């Protein structure tokens, strides 16, 4: 089997994390679509495993959490009429939690917007923190029990509840594609002793823009949306690994992982390729042994 060299792999990953679609990447790198998709899967798995094992014991003071919407195969309202829609078609949400000061993406979860996913997300976040934090989320009701169960009260938690209205000064198609206008916010302390002057999600909302610009499948009004939820999750894992370890933050003048003390050096895309190659060399786990049926007819 032909194996891509490190330089070509690095080029493909660099194109993907800079907001190119799968097909655009195939044209620029002069490789097949299957080659790009397979590398995305391999890199996504390797990046998710590295994040899971190394982004732990994070010493943070202020954490902001939010969810960002996208869809797989078809939007939720169109799934019923979609041709050959897979079981995971429809709206898909990426839950994110970021350290406000280091800009480190501490935890992320891809799923629906249910209470079960909120619980999974918050337990993962709590498990990665080494200090008591002030946590701010939006007003999504699923957070209430999830935060209480995951942190057992050892957190200063507040909600920033936003009020929305129709965009002003827009008509017809302009109004259709314009986001709702935020007309006001309400800060509400939930439990602990949050500093209400520090309650906010603006840093994470700016990160939402970075996600939409850095992952083509998140860009609105394109045909580059995800066709498989599994590949969507791999793209998210690759994006956050690159964001945390490879991308120098303009204000911090270092990567978020360096600012948070998770690593002491600046990574490059070649380091991500090295994770993929190391996973390929790792011994494969054998499946369960099945005894042959010795009975003879």
Automatic annotation (TrEMBL):
Superkingdom classification of source: Bacteria
User: Which organism encodes this protein?
Assistant: Rhodovulum euryhalinum
UniProt xrefs under InterPro entries: Transposase_27_IS1
Its name, as the record gives it, is IS1 family transposase
């Amino acid at each position: 089997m032909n194996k891509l060299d490190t330089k070509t792999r690095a080029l493909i990953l660099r194109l993907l994390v800079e907001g190119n679609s799968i097909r655009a990447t195939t044209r620029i790198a002069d490789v097949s679509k299957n080659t790009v998709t397979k590398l995305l899967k391999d890199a996504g798995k390797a990046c998710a495993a590295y994040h899971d094992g190394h982004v732990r014991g994070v010493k943070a003071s202020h954490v902001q959490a939010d969810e960002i919407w996208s869809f797989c195969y078809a939007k939720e309202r169109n799934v019923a009429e979609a041709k050959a829609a897979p079981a995971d078609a429809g709206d898909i949400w990426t839950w994110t939690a970021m350290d406000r000061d280091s800009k480190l993406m501490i935890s992320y979860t891809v799923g629906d917007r249910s209470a079960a996913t909120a619980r999974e997300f918050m337990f993962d976040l709590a498990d990665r923190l080494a200090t008591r934090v002030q946590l701010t989320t939006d007003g999504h009701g699923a957070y209430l029990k999830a935060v209480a169960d995951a942190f057992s009260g050892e957190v200063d938690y507040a909600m920033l509840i936003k009020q929305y209205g129709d965009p002003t000064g827009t008509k017809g198609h302009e109004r259709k594609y314009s986001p709702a206008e935020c007309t006001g916010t309400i800060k509400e302390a939930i439990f602990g002793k949050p500093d209400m002057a520090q309650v906010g999600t603006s840093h994470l909302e700016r990160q939402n823009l970075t996600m939409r610009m850095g992952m083509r499948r998140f860009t609105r009004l394109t045909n580059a949306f995800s066709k498989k939820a599994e590949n969507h999750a791999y793209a998210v894992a690759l994006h956050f690994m690159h964001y945390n370890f490879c991308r120098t933050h303009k204000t911090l003048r270092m990567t978020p992982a360096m600012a948070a003390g998770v690593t002491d050096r600046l990574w490059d895309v070649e380091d991500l390729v090295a994770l993929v190659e190391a996973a390929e060399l790792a011994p494969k786990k054998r499946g369960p042994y099945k005894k042959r049926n010795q009975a003879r007819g």
